[in-house]
Amino acid sequence: MSKFQVKFNEEKCKGCGLCTIYCPVKIVKLDEGRINLKGYTPSMVTNMDKCVGCTNCAIMCPDLVIEVIKNEVV
Predict the structure, then answer these.
(1) How confident is the model at residue 1 (pLDDT cuts 50, 70, 90)?
(2) Left, alpha or beta for 26 (phi > 0: left; psi -120 to 50: alpha)?
(3) Judging by beta carbons within 10 Å of its beta carbon (0-12, 13-18, 19+), is residue 5 exposed, middle or buried?
């Protein structure tokens, strides 16, 4: 299991790409194969295991679409 989980409210995402620019490990991308109900290309994480939990994506999102959660280690 990944140490962190990144959740997107995809229906609110406008596909502005700010989250993709500020991800230091470059795992946040626009999902070019999909569009949401508003007609925008939502963001997604390509490899959750590489997430460092910096929250840059969530901080830069102007629409508060992204939440970064630290998973409990059991």
Answers:
(1) confident
(2) left
(3) middle
Coil, strand or helix at 67 = strand
> Thinking of the domain 4-70, which architecture would CATH place it in?
2-Layer Sandwich (3.30)
Determine the average pLDDT of the residues in 17-37.
97
Is residue 11 within 8 A of residue 38, CB to CB? The reply is yes
Find where tokens 């679409």 sit. 65
* Largest interatomic CA distance in the chain: 40
Contacts of 31 (CB under 8 A, 6+ apart): 41, 42, 43, 44
Domain map of the chain by residue range?
Answer: 4-70
In this model, does residue 6 exceed pLDDT 90? yes
